[in-house]
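WARN retry 2 of 3 for item q-0093 after timeout on previous attempt; input resubmitted unchanged.
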Amino acid sequence: MDLDAFVQELVSYLRESVFLGRDSRCFSIENRFISSLWKGKFLRSKFIAAAFYSMRKQIGRNWKRYALKAAAGIEIIHLASLIHDDVIDGAEKRRGKICFHRRFSISEAIVWGDWLFARGVQEFEDIDAGIFGTMAISEICEGQLLEEKLCAFRNINWDNYFSIISKKTAALFQIGVEVLSSFIYPSDDVMRLSDYAFLWGISFQLYDDLLDIREDFSDKKITFPMVLLKRVDTSLARDMWDGKKELDAQALRWLRSLGKGIIGDILNSKRCPEAFSLFYEWMVEKLGRLN
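OK item q-0093 returned
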């Protein structure tokens, strides 16, 4: 399957259908701003497309419509969470573009995020899978609340970090794939796809944390590098958390080397389904370039 072509079709759909106040000019600027945000790798959507394509014979001729709707729902909900995250973090920019709340206002950003959550659920309801939209929002919100509640040096450990990223990141990969169960009787194949989507989502967040080590340390959040560092040198980790020291090049290379090994172990802890082989290879290539 041509996943890039699927993403192009998805982006066109999102830009044409996700807007507030169809017959009003009141929101024209905000709608254009939202439309400009449909960019990125769309990895969650590609996972959904690959999973649905692999089960297309069992689903039937409408498999692509279902996949497109599920992907749209996940992407809209994901965007809503990013808008809210930026408000919580007081961020100025995301991916080089000014954040929604900085372009407009915090109150507008909160309400637009709420509206996007509802709009995302609508995509799932259109294919009689609304429960997956509410599940996605519930997981994201719980993950965000955990991150806020556990934001203290004493809470830095693998269990807390895993709980946060399981809900904030991996859940969207897994839930998007689990939508399959709305159209075919749950099977071992669906479970394997769902389980591996979750593992890959975990691996992706670990990899993303390794990319942004220095920025993550300065943000005072529980991240993969901070968990690793605290386990081997609590004193240095404490100083990094308090902003008293900076990470030198040697420590950076060491953390990335250790982290890459752990990600590899997670990726290989379960056999990768053939439908997701491209994503496995993508991650292996990215890890190989990370020094």
